[in-house]
Write a structure and sequence with these properties.
Length: 424
């Protein structure tokens, strides 16, 4: 299906991790894609752009392999060299107090227990966002049908029965059959389309940094629930870990104001000594946390993906994976629409995307909110109940295996890309 009255089949506004994944998935499926971003690509690739790391579920990493992105992340695998993807073999979830040993009533996940569903792979991989961004940029450059339009700022959007036309600040215009908003939780495109959101604060901030430690982490991710919020130790390559330290806004601001020595001491107090000495080796970032969910994922020739559609607490490490599942589902729906000769931006086509993704995203968003409220407090009876709850789940193999399959992205109706199948 070719419309000669448009410049692109698909225009993606937002060249972040989810936006680039959408562009790459659709580009490899044969669509003509334009990627619009307000920043220069070189600015996005700077090391100071984003200090976070993301947990990539097993199914999501299969998608990255299908798109060719994992090749750059795993370039050293098999040669006794560090790769950029640190495997998560096990996850230990526990409850405790800063500076004290965690409760022995905990929940332990082991990839070996679902090896058949995971084809022997880990529960997931930890990848620094800057590494993922470099890999995605490199792969999009190999696609002749993906065009970068950056730096550029969208000032207006006009959808008609045949196409959507965007106008830039300099007055230039581009048109497409479909516009994809991947421009983050403060999405200009979403606001321009008049799509509202349901939002509520967490009254928390997350401090993110990378640490080096003395002893090997053995691919074990630790999620320690402290009264103010979770303290996550996530295994990167080598003797390094990504830290996501959730605190009240006041405490987070105080921690950010500490000098390097004081900050390192506070981190070490929460760590304990199970990994030997520990020290920060990267700048620290601090992000306010909140939940946000768009009231609809679609508009006139418009679809929302990633944080533009849903933004959640990092408690389960699922935010980026939700965006990747959006990308995989959208690519599959558009491939089917083309095969049936349908308009990519038709109401029927986009309704299929919303039907596929919104229920799953809504359920996960509210589950993360409940878990955060349940664990981010120091109420005696509730603390005792949740510790018992962790222990009970740990002793119920079918329940534990379900949670592991959910965490590794193996539950639900998976699009071909999440099964590792290629379009090209």
């Amino acid at each position: 299906m070719k419309n000669n009255n448009i410049d692109f089949d698909i225009l993606v506004v937002g060249g972040g991790l989810v936006g680039l994944t959408v562009a790459l998935a659709c580009g490899q499926a044969g669509f003509n894609v334009g990627v619009i971003d307000i920043a220069k690509p070189s600015d996005q690739l700077a090391g100071s752009h984003d200090g976070r790391a993301s947990a990539i579920a097993t199914a999501s990493f299969r998608m990255m392999r299908a798109l060719g992105v994992a090749d750059a992340l795993e370039e050293g695998r098999g040669n006794n060299k560090d790769t950029h993807a640190g495997p998560i073999h096990q996850i230990l979830v526990s409850d405790g107090q800063a500076g004290a040993a965690p409760s022995p009533l905990n929940l332990f996940f082991d990839a070996a227990q679902i090896s058949e569903a995971n084809d022997g792979e880990p529960l997931g991989y930890m990848v620094e966002n800057r590494r993922m961004r470099h890999a995605l940029h490199a792969q999009t450059k190999k696609q002749d049908n993906i065009t970068w339009i950056a730096p550029a700022r969208v000032s207006d959007i006009d959808a008609s029965t045949e196409k959507t036309t965007i106008t830039f600040d300099d007055g230039k215009t581009l048109s497409a059959a479909l516009l994809v908003a991947a421009d983050g939780r403060n999405s200009f495109v979403r606001k321009k389309a008049g799509i509202g959101v349901t939002a509520w604060p967490c009254n928390q901030k997350a401090i993110v940094t990378t640490v080096e430690h003395e002893l090997p982490h053995s691919g074990i991710a630790h999620e320690l629930f402290l009264p103010a919020g979770p303290f996550a130790i996530l295994p990167l390559t080598g003797n390094r870990a990504s830290i996501v330290w959730t605190e009240t806004p006041r405490a987070a601001d105080a921690a950010m104001a500490l000098d390097d020595e004081g900050f390192g001491a506070e981190l070490a107090r929460r760590f304990g000594d199970f990994l030997g000495w520990v020290k920060p080796i990267a700048p620290r970032w601090c992000y306010p946390l909140s939940f946000q969910h768009a009231k609809t994922y679609v508009g006139d020739r418009l679809v929302l993906v990633g944080d533009a559609a849903h933004a959640i607490h990092p408690i389960a490490g699922q935010g980026f994976n939700m965006g990747l599942r959006d990308a995989a589902a959208l690519a599959e729906i558009l491939v089917q629409a083309r095969a049936e000769g349908r308009d990519l931006g038709s109401e029927f086509t986009l309704a299929q995307f919303e039907s596929w993704r919104k229920f799953d995203n809504t359920a996960l968003t509210h589950a993360c909110d409940v878990f955060n409220k349940l664990f981010s407090n120091n109420l005696g009876p509730l603390k005792h109940a949740r510790r018992i709850g962790l222990s009970v789940v740990d002793k119920l193999p079918p329940v534990r295996q379900f949670f592991m399959k959910e965490a590794s992205g193996q539950v639900g109706d998976l699009p071909p890309l999440l099964r590792g199948e290629k379009y090209s």
